[in-house]
Amino acid sequence: MKILIINGSPYKENSTTLKITRAFMEGLNETAEIVHTIDLDINPCRACYACWVKTNGKCVQNDEAITVLNKIREADLVIWSIPLYCYSAPSHCKALMDRTVCFNSAEMYLGDDECTHHYGYEDGSKKTVLISSGGLPDVKGNFDGLVFQLKRMFGENTATILCAEAGLFLSPETEPLTLPYLEAAKKAGTEYKATGLISKDTQMILDVPMIPTDMYIANVNATFSAMKEKN
Ligand SMILES: Cc1cc2nc3c(=O)[nH]c(=O)nc-3n(C[C@H](O)[C@H](O)[C@H](O)COP(=O)(O)O)c2cc1C
To answer: What CA–CA distance (Å, rounded) separates 101 from 87?
Structure first.
């Protein structure tokens, strides 16, 4: 299986989100290519629509997005590893997401409950997984925009791992909380390989905050206060 990981974190290899993605990969027991969007020259989409009306799906810009779009085309599974920024993707990663409109048809169609251009990938057989982490303590609401985008763009069957309270990954002291989360992400990878899905039980572990909200908020506020005092 050809797997492409698109890492939207500016922390690159030190990304919390990528740590969770790596645990998922361990469960998948496959190798993958990683692209770090922060390092790439990716222009915004110019909305010229040449890809829809002139070039049969080829983007006419000449930048590094073209290489990534080709890698996406060739992959069997694309894992978007995206830290949550303002309830969406970081702008350099969003620029790449916008550029994938060249995978879609110009023709609008009426689906069951939406009208869209988005057929998903060209032949519809490609799989997509979204792995995201956020510093806020809630999954519900917080990740809704990003999940909606990815599912509308790449298919309702896009599997998701959404890690709230990701600040807990930043300290070795909280490993007793984060290691079980990573174990669950690994299990999700194993299940995904076997069935193309994450089981309900595993999804429940991944979707539940690691510690109570009030405790997490107190912890984060104390950490930022201490950082401010130092400066
Ligand atoms: C500009 C910016 C916006 C952010 N917006 C959100 C947000 O809307 N919701 C949230 O839960 N966390 C938000 N965060 C926190 C990051 O999502 C969080 O720290 C994440 O775990 C970083 O992952 P990474 O280490 O993979 O980059 C934001 C951080 C930054 C820098």
So the answer is: 21
